[in-house]
Amino acid sequence: MSGDDPWIHTPPRESAIFDRHAIAEIHRAAATGIYDIRGFGAKRKLPHFDDLLFLGASMSRYPLEGYRERCGTDVTLGTRHARKPITLRIPITIAGMSFGSLSAPAKEALGRGASAVGTSTTTGDGGMTPEEREHSSLLVYQVLPSRYGMEPDQLRKADAIEVVVGQGAKPGGGGMLLGQKISDRVAEMRTLPKGIDQRSACRHPDWTGPDDLEIKIQELREITDWEKPIYVKVGAARPYYDTALAVKAGADVVVLDGMQGGTAATQEVFIEHCGLPTLAAIRPAVRALQELDMHRKVQLIVSGGIRGGADVAKALALGADAVSIGTAALIALGDNHPRWEEEYRKLGTTAGCYDDWHEGKDPAGITTQDPLLTQRLDPVLAGKRLANYLSVLTLECQTIARANGKSHVHNLEPEDLVALTVEAAAMAQVPLAGTDWIPGRR
Amino acid sequence: MLARNSTLDLARLSVREVNRLLHDADRGEFLIKNPRGLHAIAAGLDAPLDVTIAGHVGYYCAGMNKHATVTIAGNAGTGVAENMMSGRVHVKGDVSQSAGATGCGGLLIIDGNASARCGISLRGLDIVVKGSVGHMSAFMAQAGNLVVLGDAGDALGDSIYEAHLYVRGKVKSLGSDCIEKDMREAHKAALAGLLEAAGLAGGIDVSEFRRYGSARKLYNFHVENLGSY
User: Fold this and answer.
1) DSSP secondary structure, A144-211, as one string
2) CB–CB of A101/A127 below 8 Å?
3) B90: left (phi > 0), else alpha (psi -120 to 50), else beta?
4) Which CATH class is domain A37-428?
């Protein structure tokens, strides 16, 4: 046998365990001595809405006619206690994202886009900017552990209040806004020196459990004269108990954020290894509401990995009243757009993979405070793009609802769904496709 | 509209009714009777009212206060004057944890002792505690002043930013990145002003206090500081 024979060598074989990403991460850690921080949400393959299918109409289900027959999409939030509940025209809201993590034009664009289609936006760490209040017809004000920028006047100006207990990307973790994004304005709003890393607390400073939270919510209602719907946002960790406790604490709305939910900046190990996938979190939360006879009385908003109208429809079919989007909204504004490919390359990445939102170098002008970069984002145009995207999500959701014979998207139900995998069937508690088997049920 | 000098009896009115009346008032003196440890009394005031509460209060009394002067003739539960913006809140007794949490402005006076996390995440409020404060006080305090005439518990000023801490008694331990700092003339003058505002003018020697603040070593994450976390 000749030594030149190429067949005596097997081709290079990549390890499934030590794949290229794992090896690169080991090299990076060895070189720097610090964990990796990034934005975006979980990137690993997880059981998700893709693992579910709608059955559509058949002999026993009567469909509605395409775009002609009415299929309602409105949702009213805060009917339990608030004197002034809010009504969204579509069951899709914009998740909390701060001025600081996002540029001022990006916040304005979110407000413009959401308002154009009759839905709400949400503040974030650092409080409410005049621009986002002006351009958001419905604005939810977050009460976060850090209380950066927290002011009673802003509470009173809001249309709803969201007490943030946790976030899907980092349940149990606080916020992180690194020094390079701390402009003069951001520093002033947060009462902190310019240029320092801002670590938002992971625990609230004045309450420490569901019994305390009940009293905290009472205080917020007193300050705002019981007008505003009060949401409680939790990262998907123990959704059955967290939902039940939020209801017990007096929430009007529970916001449940799965681990695919985005973040402006967190340790990669946190993003990829903590929390529950959105798909696994919805049914336990709905079960808690049903057992308390609070389903549809306390509204459930689900977030984390919503991309298209099918995802919206599936979340609603599993029992949510609405969904919330963050990452997808930023992409609709222009994040990760191929038009910036040359600049993404300079940053060592490529369009579609850019996730260093914490560095403040976003070529699209969205996750940055750099004055030159922020000028690139036209808030009117970006707002129009977001409005278009939200309209498509709604149309797609309606298309599916009509095909399943529903005159309102809230009439979608688990019985309309099947699962493609045993895991998804178990998590969503719907039958494996082609069977009547739901894992865990007799 | 409430008369400008009214007595509000929480044995007959609900907290909601009392707060609504106070929110509707633009000025005046008010006496709240029978607070009985109820929560969120006088929360969200937004006018130069003068409110006296005759007895003990529960959580979040005078929460997010703006402009008003609130006197609590008793003890206060968790989060008294939390996120206060301006005005003056004076507690004649002791207070539970998180007093003045995230407060932005004004003056909080506590005649007795304060429990854990007094002045947590302080953002500009001035707090004068005539007794002692519990552990983790001034945790992540960003701005403002905490004056303690007695002692401070464990981990004072942990992860502190730019707030100023003055303690006359013993400090059980300092938290991460909190150090003792020089007490210069400007600080003595500032402290004297705070004591005067709290009604203690001339009665206390400011040189008996020690000043604490941030070492500013943890303001930006560095691998070399891992041992501090």
Assistant:
1) -SS-TT--HHHHHH-SEEEEE---TTSTT---EE-GGG--HHHHHHHTS-TTS-EE--SS-SS--SHH
2) no
3) beta
4) alpha beta
Q: Output phi, psi for A299, to 5 deg.
A: -80, 150
**Is the Cβ–Cβ distance between A408 and A321 less than 8 Å?**
no
| CATH code for position B199 | 2.160.20.60
Domain boundaries, chain A: 37-428
Q: Which residues of A touch B43 (CB under 8 A)?
A: 219, 222-223
Indicate the burial class of A32 (C-beta count within 10 angstroms; 0-12, 13-18, 19 or more): exposed
Say what the pTM is: 0.96
A394 three-state secondary structure? helix
| Residues 6 or more apart whose Cβ sits within 8 Å of residue A91 | A73, A74, A75, A312, A316, A321, A322, A323, A394, A397, A409, A410
Q: How many independent structural domains does chain B possess?
A: 1
User: Is A331 in contact with A325 (CB distance < 8 Å)?
Assistant: no
State how far Cα A380 lies from the chain centre: 23
Residue span of the structural domain in which B171 resides = 5-228
Contacts of B19 in chain A (CB under 8 A): 222, 225
H/E run at residue A272: helix A268-273
**Residues A354-378: tens digit of each pLDDT:** 999 999 999 999 999 999 999 999 9
Which stretches within A61-120 are classed as H helix? 104-116
DSSP structure string for B162-199: S-EEEESS-BS-B-TTEEEE---HHHHHHHHHHHHHTT
Choosing among A143, A191, A194, A197, which should be mutated to test the B contact, i.e. which has the most B CBs within 10 A? A191
Of A169, A181, A187, A177, the closest CA to residue A278 belongs to A169
Position A354 scores a pLDDT of 97
Q: pLDDT-based confidence at A10, cuts 50/70/90?
A: confident
- B199 has a pLDDT exceeding 80: yes
Is A147 within 8 Å of B63 when comparing Cβ atoms? no
Nearest CA in chain A to B159: A199
A-B interface: how many C-beta pairs under 8 angstroms?
A: 106
